[in-house]
Design goal:
Elements lengths: L2 H7 L9 H28 L10 E6 L7 E5 L4 E6 L2 E6 L10 E3 L4 E3 L6 E2 L5 E3 L8 E6 L4 E9 L9
Antiparallel strand pairs: 1-10, 2-3, 3-4, 4-9, 5-6, 6-7, 7-8, 9-10
The structure holds FE2/S2 (inorganic) cluster.
Length: 164
Amino acid sequence: MSENEDAITKETIPDGNTRRDAFVKIGVGSLCVACSGAAVFGYDFLSPNVLYEPSPVANAGKIGKFPPDSVTQDAQSGIYIVHAAEGIYAMSAVCTHLGCLTAWKPELGIIACPCHGSKFGRDGVKLEGPAPRPLEWLKASISDEGDLLVDRSAPLSEKQFVRT
Ligand code: FES
């Protein structure tokens, strides 16, 4: 190797390192970045691809908090608890037209949908509007602790009351 070539390969950059040192550092840095990316994608690939959803069973609270002849809306759970003469029943508050959340109108004694004007009776029967079906009745039961549990994933095909 000539003296000139040796000078080129050992050419120093301002901080005192050789060009080779600089390339080694760049290579190691690039390798670290690539390994980090591979680790992130590997972790993502190996993680279970699961959608965690809340339980369809809503706890409406103690059965005693629903006075006779009352309609209680639990907007957070999207349900109504109605205490009628026959007993307590639960209904979905989701409109059967396009899925808007309905609201209980105590001054009118009806359940109304704010989206397209469907109206339902307190038993879910459609009174007017574009909704194709009545509101769904939901399976309800009383837990050992006296809480009213409503299974939002279990619509009933016929009316069912929880006796108090
Ligand atoms: S979503 Fe309720 S009337 Fe259309």
